[in-house]
Design a protein that fits this description.
- The complex is a heterotrimer of chains A (about 60), B (about 80) and C (about 210).
- Chain A is α+β, with helices and mostly antiparallel strands and about 60 residues long.
- Helices cover about 55% and strands about 15% of the residues of chain A.
- In chain A, strand 1 and strand 2 form a beta hairpin.
- Chain C is an alpha/beta fold and about 210 residues long.
- The longest helix of chain C has 21 residues.
- Classes of the chains: A alpha+beta (about 60), B mainly alpha (about 80), C alpha/beta (about 210).
- Strand 1 of chain B pairs antiparallel with strand 8 of chain C, so a sheet runs across the interface.
Amino acid sequence: MTKERFMRVYSNLPLNMRKEVIVVINKEPISWDVARNEIEHDTQLGKEILKKLMELKII
Amino acid sequence: MNDKEEIRELVIERLKYLPDNIKVSIGNMGSFDKEELIEHIKKDDTIGKKIVEVELHFLMALKEGILSEQRISSD
Amino acid sequence: MLFITRPNYDDTTNYLYYWSEEIIKEAEKRNIKVIDFKGKKANRVDIEKFLKKQNPKFIIFNGHGSAESIYGQKEIIIKSGENEKLLKSKIIYAISCNSASKLGEDSIKAGAESYMGYGDAFIFLYDPNKCSNPLSDDLAKPFLKPSNELAISILKKNTTEEAYIKSQNSFKKEIRNLALGESTNKEAIRWLIWDMHCQKLLGNPKAQL
């Protein structure tokens, strides 16, 4: 469910905005593109990113 | 770190990508360059809170699809 | 008659001062008399004296603001609870932060026909190297156009509702151009969206010159 929410927001972004930082995990800034890659591949980082984005109500 | 601190951290990271040669006029609050904006966010003062509010407003607008091609082409 | 205040003492008021030149030219082109209180002339005493004697239909206030007030040249010129009745029967456009909240509402209660402005901070981006020539500043241009569109639309005898919609569409067009194009000014999008959402129309939407 949250993955779909992320993809919906991501897919509505103009291409040139997908390199913007969308979340910071362990002091590392993460862009929309990097987030998408991690989330699509169901990595641990991807799960953390999704959780943080939901907590901060960004998706 | 609580949510508010995380939001501030996020906004700071996003504003780091602003060009160096710009200033932002925020009405009565004054005009600020990138470093000054970031400094105010770190201080969490009135100006910092406003900058964060505006950035969150933008992120919420993105969530609602304000920039989706279909929407901004048809408006 | 168009009455316009143009204080000029810091970067923000300097930009608003020069942005207004296009509005003044449009009014003159349409044979609308323009009374321009610029610089030190944008003070409370002179403005109150003028508004008590004359009856401009359209007033544009440039300058800083708050929820209850509009500033001229480093001083408050219109303040809620004090002199907003001077705005009775007029169409107002205030490019002043926050004033469309309390002052705007109070002005309508005091008889202003229509009040257009911003319910929160009006924010714009600019190049500090262009302060001596703001009209050449491409960073600020996307903010100038929607704001001027509103005023010019009124001068063209559109209703306040039509002017507001045109201005909102102008904001959207600027946002679209920055989002979809190869512009290096994409940072402006966040502040354009903010200004667009803060812009307000109060009072009679059918008011017109």
